[in-house]
Design brief:
Blueprint lengths: L7 E4 L6 E2 L1 H15 L6 H7 L4 H9 L5 H18 L4 E2 L3 H10 L3 E9 H10 L9 E4 L8 H10 L9 E5 L2 H9 L3 E5 L6 H5 L5 E2 L2 H11 L2
Parallel strand pairs: 1-4, 1-6, 4-5, 6-7, 7-8
Antiparallel strand pairs: 2-3
Helix pairs in contact: 1-4, 7-8
Length: 222
Amino acid sequence: MGKQQAPHIVWDWNGTLFHDIDVVIQATNASFAEIGLPPITLERYRELYCVPVPRFYERLLGRMPTDAEWEVMDGAFHRHYWSLADGAALADGAGKLLADWQAAGLTQSMCSLAPHDRLLPIVRTHGIEHHFIRVDGRVGNSTGGKAEHMERHVAALASTVDPARTVVIGDAVDDAVAAAHVGARAVLYTGGSHSRASLAEAGVPVVDTLAEAVTEATRLAA
């Protein structure tokens, strides 16, 4: 099958390649203050956070937010997040890992639930766009998970990427769900939005560094 036999990595952005968890907590608490919720700690956030995000608010509130409430919550979070995002950086060693994978003649892409029109500029700002054969952010609302989005992403790469040799690297259980949906494998990284305990429930390898994630991805795609 030629190129289809080569290992491929699909990277997540927020909380994985982009170390923005501190910005996420700041933005979350700023938005919480606007809607009358008490602040949340990083540890508590990682215990409760989940995708689709309205379920995260359900865990906080004890009920699912109404459509109107969700619109206010989501709008407030993103307003604060994007005002702070320039203060975040790539995860430790991310740039070198991307460059080394590409230098080895292997392919990688990015599939993110960040809005596509916001994702591309920030990826370019960090000088890593050229390492990817495709970068897809979210188009449309943010109430769903990544599975259907991943399906479209992998379908667009069908001529060069074999899902069976593809590994998704992300920081959320939803990344593992999306990988399974397209017949790929997954490795989950503890540097983002989930606790190690919650990630372990996905039944896939869980690692503490992106270097370990790439090592695991190489093993899984072999």
